Amino acid sequence: MAKGWFRRKKGKLVYYWYNANRKERSRLIGLDSMTDKEGWLRVGELRLDKLVAKSDAVIITFGELAERYLADYPFNKRSTKELHNQIVKNLLLPKWRAAEAINIEPTSLKAWLLEFNVESSTRGKYKSIMSSIYSWGQCEGLVPRGEEFNPCRYVKGREFSQVTGYEGMALEIEDTLKVLSELKQPEYELALLVASCGLRISEALGLRWRNILWDRGLIAIRETFVHLNIQNGGKTKLSRSRVEAPQLLLDAIAVWRQKTTYAEDDDFVFPSEKLHGNQPRSASQLVEDYIRPAAIAAGVILVENGTTYDRDGEVVKRFGFHNLGRHSLATFLMDERENPAVVQAIMRHAKMDMTLYYSHSRRGAKRAAQDKVIERLIPVGMRVQTREPKAIQ
Known about the structure:
Layout: E1 5-9, E2 12-18, E3 24-31, H1 36-46, H2 62-72, H3 78-96, H4 106-114, H5 120-139, H6 173-181, H7 187-197, H8 201-205, E4 212-213, E5 218-220, E6 223-226, E7 229-232, E8 242-244, H9 247-259, H10 283-297, E9 302-304, E10 307-309, H11 321-335, H12 340-347, H13 352-358, H14 363-377
Antiparallel strand pairs: 1-2, 2-3, 4-5, 5-8, 6-7, 9-10
Helix pairs in contact: 2-3, 6-10, 7-9, 7-11, 11-12
């Protein structure tokens, strides 16, 4: 009994052992068709023999583990904490609260996750957050260490890939101009700031007048406005850097400062009038009330039966400041053959891979590249002359 023992119950092979308090514990090993030798090999693989006569952190429920995680984990950002709170409390706890943490079977977890009719990246995020709870619990000694005690490690497949298939829509510079022409002050200045500097909307809304270094042509990113809360710092270390601001942009923003009621150094550049300037405006409301209507009026996007399309009839899943700014700006700069390192610096990306992700291949650019190839493949003397089809008599 020093290493535990097996029982065969209802077609299953179950491993049993006593913990330090002489309480009986068990774990399903496999089907009862397994031999004892195969069973002991599996026990060794799962390191269950290491739990014999050990103090029992094993019995902690997933609910207890998750609640302690939410209370004690040192989240860097309030927005991250809010996201984890939402997923844990609304999705994970209703299902797994009472289950013993290390006895949640990967097969059951996988089947449950597949019930969600969401994109694989979203499903992967659910799994990732659950896995983070286990990893933190192992660091805190609440769950035994080892991959075998984290069921999320065994839930694999393309259904859980966190690589999203979403490709943001990038606008031609002429289309950006059309959208801007549909906007009035101060939505125009906000959109112009995002489109020319590539600021994230959370960064633009978090700006105070003192963050604009007029004499140096710079904008300092010191706060962001996320989930209706002001947060110190930017999204990443590079995001907290200073952003080059073209003089024409600064001139336009200076005109807005002359007209706004909230023009003191500590005031927000784009404040909420309803909240008496104490908080910036809501990004989602700005998109709904101004940016999308401007794009529709400009003919950049079309909406039919509640679905948004681009001019080519492709479905546009999301359209807002990120399309108008970061996606379009990176694409335009790369199309203009700017130094990729310069584009990366403007976008404030830590890695070039992310810059390339944001720069899209436009149809015109692809066609021009292919034209160069076909012109080399078909000499002038061999080219077929284009003829207008004869009219049918």
